[in-house]
Every structure is written in C-alpha cells, then in structure tokens.
Amino acid sequence: xxxxxxxxxxxxLYNEDESLPELHEWITRVMRDNKFTYEIIFVNDGSTDRxxxxxxxxxxxxAHVHGxxxxxxxxxxxxxxxxxxxxxxxxxxxxxADLQDSPDEIPELYRMITDEGYDLVSxxxxxxxxxxxxxxxxxxxNATARWVSGIKNLHDFNCGLKAYRSEVVKNIEVYxxxxxYIPYLAxxxxxxxxGEKVVHHQARKYGHTKFGLNRFVNGxxxxxxxxxxxKFGKQPMHVFGFLGTLMFIVGFIAxxxxxxxxxxxxxxxTPAPLxxxxxxxxxxxxxxxxxxxxFLTGFxxxxxxxxxxxxxxxxxxxxx
Length: 320
Known about the structure:
The protein has 320 residues and is α/β, with parallel strands linked by helices.
C-alpha cells in the first residue's frame, strides 16, 4: 500500500499567472527544507490569462505539481471542493495564489494538526495590508460569523490560509460561496477541535483583488442559509410548522375579536359596524392565509427532506 503524503497544498486561482512561478518556488523550498512528502494542486477557476499554461509548464518540470482546469469561472468554493476531492495528503493546506499568504507558515500549521490534534487550523491576519474599506467590513463580518457559528476563538473566518486533517475535507461539502464558512461546516460535521494561528499577511505583489463589496452581502445571506440548514435542514416542519401555527392562532384570535364585537352589538340592539371596517378583519385574513401557506411549506419541505439521499448521512467517527 502506497504511503500517504504528508501534505497536499490546494491553491484555487483566477488570473494569477504572474505570481504562480514564485509561489511554486516558495512552496517547494519550504517542503524540501522540512523534508515533507507533498503535492501541490493548482485549481484554475476559468482563468482568461496564461495561468493554465504556467501550471502546465510547472507540472512538466515538477512531478509534485497537479492541475485542475475549469471550463469557466465557477468560484472559489467549487475550486476548493475539487481540490479537496483530489488531495491525497494527511494534512491539507489551502492558500490563495496572490502571494499574500506565506508558505513559511506551513510547517507550524502542519505541526498543530499532527502534534496538537487539531481538526482544522485557520490563519489570522492580525496585521493586514488592505485598505480601510476592506478591513472594517471584514471585522464586522467576522464578529457576526463568530456569534452565529459559536466558534468564538476565530478572528478571521475568510482567511485563505488554513490547514485540515484529511478526514475533514473528505467529509464536508463546500458549495456556492460557502468557503467563508468552512470552520462552521467542519463544526457541523462533528470536527469541533478548531484552532487559530496568527499568520503573516503580505501586500499584493501582482494584479488586483478579485473580490468586491458584494461579497459581504452574499456572505451574510450564506451565513443565514447555513445557520438555518444546520438547525432545521433535516426537520424543516419544526420551523415552518411553528411559524404557521403561530400566525394561524393570531388570525383566529382576530376572528374571535371581530365576531365578539358583532355579536355584542346584535345582543344590545345597537347598529353593528361592518366587519370589513375593522382592522382585525384584515389581520385575521392575512395571518390565517400566511399561517396556512407556511404550514403547507413545512409539509413540502418535509417531503423533499425525506426524499433526499443524504437524509441519513451521519458522521460516524468509530465503529466496531
């Protein structure tokens, strides 16, 4: 049986042809100095520059280099998913291709996984070389992510420099734009020994950033989705049924109020106001309709959940 590699370095990239040779040389030097067995997996996310030509050239000279090429730009999460699927190392290291992540951090990240028993170690760029327009929203985003995920010890969820035990990347599904929340995905899969390491952040040497402010809006929406799926993904009726029942009860109470007012006037022989003149009539109508729709949504969601092939997909750590 072939011995497993020490490290797989997964590098997702988009239009980074200028930085790739320098990054490859840097990673190679660190690996050789520390006598690691390794592979470098470059995932070309539909680049329109010469990135793939550079990767092919590097692979011809170095058997440790492997490449994955997408036909078009899919995003960082799909690139990481395919890189994780191909990785053969005991420890998987991810880093960005723009040289802002330092490969010199790899030996200590590896040691924290293998010696200290962490499932995942995330980099923390404590001193950043980014403009204020990027650092301030990032701080707010990370504070929200800590609160929602319950992972209080992480300061930089979105740092591209991370280390994982192989079992972690093989048991999580990174999709959409969920690469920001890989620690949360790992925690939900039962890998809760998550650590952090302060890492060196370098100013971008080539090209320009690929991320705009829209990532913060998308990030919050993804966080809400992930939180909802974690709590109610296998039992959607618990949330939709509860909300539907609550709204239906409010609507029913409003109906009782409208009916009681009408009956009181009739008993007393006084002119009864039109039901449609009462605001409670419209509250009742709206709430009962919404309640019914939410209840039916819960039933449909339960049917979808029961039909899912992953409905009984549980993380089993050991079995005899």
